[in-house]
Amino acid sequence: MESEIQEKYIKAGKIARQVRDYACELVKPGAFLVDIAQNAEQRVRMLGGEIAFPINISINDTAAHFHPEKDDQTCVKDEDYVKIDVGVHVDGYIGDTAKTIRVAGKDDLIVCSEKMLETALAMAKPGTTIGEMGSAIESVADEFGFKSVRNLTGHSLGKFDVHAGLIVPNIRNDSQYQLREDEVIAIEPFCTTGTGAVKDSGKPLILRWIVDRPTRLVEARRILEMARNDFQRLPFAKRWVQEKFSKLKVELSLRELLASNALYGYAPLKEVSGKPVAQTEHTVIVKEKPIITTC
User: Fold this and answer.
1) 71 is catalytic
2) Is 285 exposed, middle or buried (0-12, 13-18, 19+ CB in 10 A)?
3) Is 281 an active-site residue?
């Protein structure tokens, strides 16, 4: 990896870590999720980064992909498991990091997710197989008596690409793929007191450009242009377009764009048995001595 590229990954990771920690400080009883999101976005730009994907603020049995709409009135409660997942890029090179917090205090579920990640990060060296890493991650969940979420995975990162092809399962698997020097991966174990699987739940709140399509609505055409150009084909929030157009026009436009497969929609993901989920995540550059960019 060229030193200039490595430095951009490290800078993006540093900003992502600072924004993640800042957002976690905002998680207090009565805090509105939309306020946390807006403040986190402002902090990314203040620190010299760009948003790689909308901050995920997922609570309790919602494991991932929740981002508040413009008029969302959801607020934090004492016992909530609040997962803060932040993505920042510098010239397209991404830092991706997450943390679970509770106002009521850290418990074994959160500690388990942190230990799962710590175990995996130590293995992020050339030659480690994806199967070995998945087995080690799930073994930690077993030790705590929890389930590793089997259909959520870590992933490789590329330039302007949050999911660059390689997946890192959080369960035992038979993959013999060996990690390679300078690969950049986001390792993100999820654990739960439930059955260990998630499912789509509700309409997409985060979307991504796929391809240009003819559109009937002027607003749909503008949203597609924004997705391609303003958001650089990276995931974007429904809330961001709600701030530009009327609620009705946004709903009609997104329905049209999703139906034509011009946009991809990320629906909120909920644990199938309704039990809480904890997540911890860092981005790492694979080396003999792994470089954790978001630590």
Assistant:
1) no
2) buried
3) yes
Report pLDDT digits (tens) over 80-94: 999 999 999 999 999
Instruction: Assess whether 188 carries a catalytic annotation.
Output: yes
Report the C-alpha gap between 156 and 89 in whole angstroms.
14
What are the domain boundaries of the chain? Answer: 3-197+275-292, 206-266
Tell me which architecture the domain covering 206-266 has in CATH: Orthogonal Bundle (1.10)
Does this model's pTM top 0.70? My answer is yes
For domain 3-197+275-292, which architecture applies? Alpha-Beta Complex (3.90)
| CA 212 to centroid of chain Cα atoms | 25
Whether 25 is catalytic is: no
DSSP alpha helices (H): ranges in the chain?
Answer: 3-25, 33-46, 108-121, 130-144, 218-225, 238-242, 247-259
Rounded Cα distance, 36 and 51, in Å: 15
Q: Which residue out of 114, 155, 219, 282 is catalytically annotated?
A: 155
